[in-house]
Design a protein that fits this description.
Blueprint lengths: L5 E12 L2 E13 L4 E5 L6 H8 L7 E6 L2 E2 L5 H11 E5 L10 H10 L5 H14 L15 H13 L5 E5 L7 H16 L3 E5 L3 H4 L4 E6 L2 E7 L11 E2 L73 H6 L2 E2 L12
Parallel strand pairs: 3-8, 3-9, 6-7, 7-8
Antiparallel strand pairs: 1-2, 1-4, 4-5, 9-10, 11-12
Helix pairs in contact: 3-4, 3-5, 4-5
Bound molecules: adenosine-5'-diphosphate and magnesium ion.
The site of adenosine-5'-diphosphate has 12 residues, from strand 1, strand 2 and helix 1.
Length: 335
């Protein structure tokens, strides 16, 4: 069995408050192997975000041990921790957290600044990642010009730009309608098919059903940890098509991401190089960002479901299919 990518042992966390220490996590033990897709659920206040912040090295536990990619995080200094976090983890948040005055490409490229890449490489990598989530044509647009679901895709592109082994996503569909959530989950499924490890917090059992393992928190403790049951109903048979190649007009069958060398968690250099996209092209025919009527600048997070407004391309239509959990997934070797 592969060494755990994440291992926590006896983790405790208490926040310092005026009234004294406020315990939030209590004796949490968990190991996550490379290639897993884990959903974390639990009531509000049960400690999920606190746990994710610790996993992401954004916060430190009060007690217990945390090993990330074989390193005990507590033994690292600040710079070493930042370097480990940068090369290992991509974050996706509920609120997208894009910088409003920066282009999508600059938003996606942001994590590369800290990795010391030059401008041309940053731009090329950002473009590659935007292509991957089907938004390459909007590279120079501002976040306010695209829908919330598209913004989350940009945030996923940003999370991928350092080619991390692990994506940590805290309520990534919490601001999205159910249809758009399914599309976002399609991206996570496809990334997991590329052997990227995913740990995702959600309050939505439909979202959690995309994961392969479900962990439940209650009052700061893990109270459930098991494989997710197979998805029920008609969705089960047809969830997530892998989506067409950017600019490919939708005629070509998409190259399954899982076929793109499943033994390679992520193309480390040069990317997939085939321009393949996790999602269809946006906005129809490449005429630029959605019109201001579609995404009014006065609405920083325009309404969802924007894909339904234009004539859906065949690729957009295909993206609406909930996609197969079986058949396309799970065949690639998980480490
Ligand atoms: N920085 C903080 N200082 C004090 N209490 C906090 C802080 N962050 C979170 N909490 C409290 O810790 C508990 C767990 O919060 P959180 O981890 O955000 O839960 P969840 O994500 O499951 O809703 C809550 O009671 C919350 O109010
Ligand atoms: Mg939370």
């Amino acid at each position: 069995m592969a060494e755990a990518l994440i291992r926590v042992e006896g983790l405790d966390k208490a926040y310092d408050t005026a009234a004294g220490p406020f315990p939030v996590l209590r004796d949490v033990n968990l190991a996550i192997r490379p290639g897993e897709f884990v959903a974390i659920m639990g009531p509000s206040g049960s400690g999920k975000s606190t746990f994710m912040n610790i996993l992401g090295c954004l916060d430190r536990p009060s007690g217990g041990r945390y090993f990330l990619a074989g390193s005990e995080v507590a033994a690292l200094d600040k710079d070493q921790t930042a370097a480990l976090r940068n090369r290992t983890i991509g974050f996706v948040f509920q609120g997208f957290n894009l910088l409003p005055r920066m282009s999508l490409a600059d938003n996606v490229a942001l994590p590369l600044i800290y990795s010391g890449h030059g401008h041309a490489e940053r731009r090329a990598r950002a473009q590659e990642m935007l292509d991957k989530v089907g938004l390459g044509r909007y590279a120079d647009s501002l976040p306010s010009r695209i829908s919330g679901g598209q913004q989350q895709r940009v945030a996923i592109a940003r999370a991928l730009v350092n080619r991390p082994q692990l994506i940590l996503a805290d309520e990534p569909t919490g601001n999205l309608d159910s249809h758009t959530s399914e599309e976002i989950m399609g991206i996570f499924n496809a990334l997991n098919d590329e052997a990227i490890t995913i740990v995702l917090v959600t309050h939505d059992s439909n979202v959690a059903a995309h994961a392969k393992r479900l962990v439940r928190f209650l009052d700061g403790r893990i109270v459930h940890d098991a494989a997710t049951p197979p998805r029920q109903g008609s969705d089960t048979a047809s969830h997530f098509h892998l989506l067409p190649v950017e600019g490919g007009r939708g005629e070509d069958p998409p190259s399954p991401l899982s076929a793109a060398s499943p033994s390679h968690p992520l193309p480390r250099e040069g990317g997939r190089g085939d321009g393949s996209s996790l999602l269809p092209r946006e906005g129809g025919r490449g005429e630029g960002p959605p019109s201001s009527s579609e995404a009014s600048p006065s609405h920083p997070l325009p309404r969802e479901g924007g894909w339904g407004e234009g004539p859906p391309s065949s690729s957009a239509a295909s993206s609406r299919h909930p996609l197969p959990r079986e058949g396309g997934r799970g065949e690639g070797p998980k480490c």
